[in-house]
Amino acid sequence: MPVNLVADENVDFRIVKALRNTGFKIISVLQDYRGLPDRQVLEVAKQNNAILLTEDKDFGEWVFAHRVKTCGIVFLRYKTDELEGVIRSLVKVLTDYDVSLQEKFVTLTIKKIRTREIP
C-alpha cells in the first residue's frame, strides 16, 4: 500500500496529477485547503498520517528549528524544465522507499536524494 501524501499548494499540480495517476492517495492543499498557513498544513499531513510534498524550504525550519512533529517531508528542488524528470524521480523514491520515508526530511532533485531524520 503506497504512503499517503499531502501536496502543499506550491507543488505544481502536474505533479499531483501524475502521482494520482500512478495510484498514490494525495490530498492537494491547493484544491482542499487553499491559503492554509504552513503550521496547519503540517497538521493536515499529521492527521492523515501523510508525507508532505513541498517546494517551500520553510518547512525545514518548522521541523528542525521549531521541532514541530510531522510524519515526513519531501522537499522538491528542480528547475521548470526538469519537471518530468523530478516526477519520475519522485515516483521512484515514493515507490522504493514507501513508509520508510516517515519521520524523514527528504530533499529530492532529479540527480540526488538527501535524507535526514526528523528529530
Your description of this structure?
- The chain is of the alpha/beta class.
- It is 38% helix and 22% strand.
- The chain has helices spanning 13-21, 29-32, 38-47, 58-64, 83-97; strands spanning 4-7, 26-28, 50-54, 73-76, 104-108, 113-117.
- Strands 2-1-3-4-5-6 form a six-stranded mixed beta sheet, with helices on both faces.
- The longest helix has 15 residues, at 83-97.
- It is globular and about 35 Å long.
Give the topology.
Blueprint: E1 4-7, H1 13-21, E2 26-28, H2 29-32, H3 38-47, E3 50-54, H4 58-64, E4 73-76, H5 83-97, E5 104-108, E6 113-117
Parallel strand pairs: 1-2, 1-3, 3-4, 4-5
Antiparallel strand pairs: 5-6
Which features characterize this protein?
119 residues, alpha/beta, Rossmann fold, six-stranded mixed β-sheet, 38% helix
Structure summarized in a few sentences:
The chain is an alpha/beta fold and 119 residues long. Helices cover 38% and strands 22% of the residues.
